[in-house]
Amino acid sequence: xxxxxxxxxxxxxxxxxxxxxxxxxxxxxxxxxxxxxxxxxxxxxxxxxxxxxxxxxxxxxxxxxxxxxxxxxxxxxxxxxxxxxxxxxxxxxxxxxxxxxxxxxxxxxxxxxxxxxxxxxxxxxxxxxxxxxxxxxxxxxxxxxxxxxxxxxxxxxxxxxxxxxxxxxxxxxxxxxxxxxxxxxxxxxxxxxxxxxxxxxxxxxxxxxxxxxxxxxxxxxxxxxxxxxxxxxxxxxxxxxxxxxxxxxxxxxxxxxxxxxxxxxxxxxxxxxxxxxxxxxxxxxxxxxxxxxxxxxxxxxxxxxxxxxxxxxxxxxxxxxxxxxxxxxxxxxxxxxxxxxxxxxxxxxxxxxxxxxxxxxxxxxxxxxxxxxxx
Length: 375
Prior knowledge:
This protein is mainly α. The chain has 14 helices and 5 strands. It has 2 domains: about 20-65 and about 325-375, no CATH class; about 90-280, no CATH class. The chain has a 3-stranded mixed β-sheet. The chain has a two-stranded antiparallel ribbon with strand order 1-4. Residues about 1-15 and about 335-340 have low confidence and may be disordered.
């Protein structure tokens, strides 16, 4: 039995001369909400409350229908699990980066002391004057961030005889590719890039596929290792450029890095070994993080592949401690989900003359009728 007034009580349509269809729609929605509140809480509408609450119960029954998973939804859920596991272990990579940054500051000071001990600034200035007079015949200077330090040691051969040798460390202040992928991992992930692509193949180059090369190209372009820069003018500063120009020293000699091999004492050598180790540790923590998370995600992806409904993924998330709810699927859905019906949205997108006051009232009545029919 259809209930008439007061359940379908009269509404006052306010039409403003300058109101757009979107504003009218919002106004009608507000009226519709007020109707619901009046019906539910006004004691004068007891009969209406019974009918309306029955409608609400029917809607709630319909919304309890199981949410079926598809490939896109499984991917969204997997990303939630991945973020959860990364958050559990990423502090180690962050700490490794901090430790390296501290060591880098000290290493700059120490290498400057070492180089200037062997090549005083006055000698560099003298050669620069000679080059000004005699061009390359006056000597060679090169500004670089690559150095070698060495310390004499004794070694023993297979026959037990001692011989003189050197223990050396390569000291660099530029940025290698593996280090860059680890150091800028968070920034690249935020850009939708994959800084873990090289770890996924586990050293097996036969596993390289089109996605591997696409990820490699995107990462290299972001970092500045790509041969083709996005900005041909050179105005854009890439991470690689930043590190290249961050620290350099003028040295006497050629551009060949290994030609700059400076003798240091044992303590200084050990310090530079620790500096190198701090850089290597950033790479190692990146590898450990990927290995740990990927080990978990392989199992999660297998499980999600076998799940048909969201509630199964939700049960898993609850047991593991992952915060997962249906809203994450809604947030990642496309623009296809809209407050407007396809017909109404298509009408709003049409290029047409601003509707008259009468047309706006007609639109409002139509939207209201649709809302009443739904409710």
